[in-house]
């Protein structure tokens, strides 16, 4: 039996851009659009031409897409204007994108309160706007705003709105759960009724995540008959976000009954890039990826308990619902005070370290992990530090440089403008190939100053860490009192978008920070294959 085609519509660059704290540059938009295109998305919604200078500039120099249909977003014409004489609609159509998605009212309450017009006039706005798109040779779509609330209040009118769009030539009528309050069973029931009036291969679904059900509701809509699914990368969007395209895609491709019934533009090869596309968005937004995100998160296939690890090694299906590489992810076997020998051996194997399972060094390493975690370390979240510790114990870590000493001080003073400021400066002395090097640097805090000074001159190793930068810095006080133990976790990244986590523990926050910094740099040198010091 031939599979039915599902169409994926990504609105990261439009609806996702409404996320608090998100501000895409034109370059960001181009990079994301091209990544979505390569992934296999069918429609990439670029924004609203004329709504702001950034969107206008983006549509003036659109991305070169090979697969996806570039789509402009806008509104149906305003009351009192013809479709050809409405400046807002004209700006959208003047972008000359192959497809246009127009939002309009489908709830009689909104028509009365927001537009202040009759129900009949609103239907005319919808129909004439879609007809104008058709006249200009565009592929028109109608986003039926507040459709589910409108249907609950007045099903006849909500249906009349989408039927008017469809009959005017809309390729897609998209049912929007605008406030995110509709539950999956309601979506299923309502979409089942809709497809009796508008063919399912012309019906789309657009959900928001205000009840944490956006993905579930989208899947329910597909099973009920909708054939276009809208969402955003990593669930970006205003309030609680939109349906997460990164969760929807693998579910549609890998899970039954979707796998057997439907096909999308995303191939099995494209699916392998899902994690990297998800991480790309976070990188552009300068935020850490959600480690617990379904399918692609760093912890999505992480197994901490020793019994779980033993079972997974025998049959991954016991604790993994898919094979991680299918979505570009991989299995992680953390080590912690709950670990058994199987965790240690599995993790050493992942590091490429070969050791006899009966070697007493394994038991000593396990005991050391438990002892260090008792004193505040957390290696399940800092695998880079664990790898360095394991390699040292096994004699497989090159010696790169020695830190002879470091000093940091913070001064609070008035600057030349009379403003009260805090300035930190650090001095770090290291030995590389028998040569003593000293670096001095200022920073906006003691950790930043130490980081800058440490990396300022590492002799022959400086070139290996040029693209390295700190992505996140977290401090946790583990107990109270004047001698409280402090745990510092540092996340680092580089131009290859590789991320690694290191840890330091001390009663002194600066000392703990410096230990985590040292591990971060050492791990980078190890990963880059830097030669040992002479």
From TrEMBL:
Pfam families, A to Z: HCS_D2, HMGL-like, LeuA_dimer
InterPro entries (UniProt xref): 2-isopropylmalate_synth_dimer, AIPM/Hcit_synth_CS, Aldolase_TIM, Citramal_synthase, LeuA/HCS_post-cat, LeuA_allosteric_dom_sf, PYR_CT
Residue ranges annotated for the Pyruvate carboxyltransferase domain, each copy included: 6-272
Keywords annotated in UniProt: Amino-acid biosynthesis, Branched-chain amino acid biosynthesis, Isoleucine biosynthesis, Transferase
Gene3D superfamilies per UniProt: 1.10.238.260, 3.30.160.270, Aldolase class I
Catalytic reactions of this protein: pyruvate + acetyl-CoA + H2O = (3R)-citramalate + CoA + H(+)
E.C. no: 2.3.3.21
Pathway(s) served: Amino-acid biosynthesis; L-isoleucine biosynthesis; 2-oxobutanoate from pyruvate: step 1/3
SUPFAM superfamilies xref list: 2-isopropylmalate synthase LeuA, allosteric (dimerisation) domain (SSF110921), Aldolase (SSF51569)
Taxonomic superkingdom: Bacteria
Family listed: Belongs to the alpha-IPM synthase/homocitrate synthase family.
Protein name, entry field: Citramalate synthase
């Amino acid at each position: 039996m031939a599979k039915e085609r599902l169409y994926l519509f990504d609105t990261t660059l439009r609806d996702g851009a409404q996320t608090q704290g998100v501000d895409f540059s034109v370059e960001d938009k181009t990079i994301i659009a091209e990544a979505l295109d390569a992934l296999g998305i069918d429609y990439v919604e670029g924004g609203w031409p004329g709504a702001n200078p950034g969107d206008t500039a983006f549509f003036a120099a659109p991305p070169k897409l090979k697969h996806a249909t570039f789509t402009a977003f806008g509104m149906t014409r305003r009351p009192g204007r013809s479709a050809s004489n409405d400046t807002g609609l004209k700006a959208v159509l003047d972008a000359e994108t192959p497809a246009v998605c127009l939002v309009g009212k489908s709830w009689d309450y909104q028509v009365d309160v927001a537009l202040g017009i009759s129900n009949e006039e609103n239907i005319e706005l919808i129909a004439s706007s879609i007809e104008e798109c058709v006249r200009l040779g565009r592929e028109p779509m109608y986003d039926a705003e507040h459709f589910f609330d409108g249907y609950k209040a007045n099903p006849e009118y909500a249906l009349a709105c989408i039927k008017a769009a469809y009959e005017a030539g809309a390729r897609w009528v998209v049912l929007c759960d605008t406030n995110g309050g509709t539950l999956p069973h309601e979506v299923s029931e309502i979409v089942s009724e809709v497809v009796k009036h508008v063919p399912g291969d012309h019906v789309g679904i657009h959900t928001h995540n205000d009840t944490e059900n956006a993905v579930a509701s989208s899947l329910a809509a597909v099973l009920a008959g909708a054939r276009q699914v809208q969402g955003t990368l990593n669930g970006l969007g205003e309030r609680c976000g939109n349906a997460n395209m990164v969760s929807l895609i693998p579910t549609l491709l890998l899970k039954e009954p979707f796998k057997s019934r439907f096909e999308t533009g995303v191939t099995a090869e494209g699916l392998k890039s899902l994690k990297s596309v998800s991480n790309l968005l976070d990188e552009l937004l300068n935020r850490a990826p959600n480690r617990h995100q379904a399918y692609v998160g760093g912890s999505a296939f992480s197994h901490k308990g020793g019994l779980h690890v033993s079972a997974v090694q025998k049959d991954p299906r016991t604790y993994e619902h898919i094979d991680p590489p299918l979505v570009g992810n991989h299995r992680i076997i953390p080590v912690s005070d709950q670990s058994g020998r199987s965790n240690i051996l599995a993790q050493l194997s992942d590091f490429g370290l070969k050791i006899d399972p009966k070697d007493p060094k394994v038991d000593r390493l396990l005991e050391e992990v438990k002892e260090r975690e008792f004193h505040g370390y957390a290696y399940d979240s800092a695998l880079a530090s664990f790898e360095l510790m394991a390699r040292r114990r096994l004699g497989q870590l090159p010696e790169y440089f020695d830190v002879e000493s470091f000093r940091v001080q913070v001064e609070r003073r008035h600057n030349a403008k009379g403003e009260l400021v805090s300035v930190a400066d650090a001095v770090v002395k290291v030995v590389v190939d028998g040569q003593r090097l000293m670096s001095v640097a200022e920073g906006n805090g003691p950790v930043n100053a130490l980081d800058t000074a440490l990396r300022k001159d590492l002799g022959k190793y400086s070139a290996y860490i040029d693209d390295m930068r700190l992505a996140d810095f977290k401090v946790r006080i583990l107990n109270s009192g004047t001698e409280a133990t402090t745990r510092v976790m540092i996340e680092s990244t580089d131009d290859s978008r590789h991320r690694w986590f290191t840890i330091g523990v001390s009663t002194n926050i600066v000392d703990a920070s410096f230990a985590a910094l040292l591990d971060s740099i050492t791990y980078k040198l190890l990963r880059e294959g830097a030669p040992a010091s002479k």
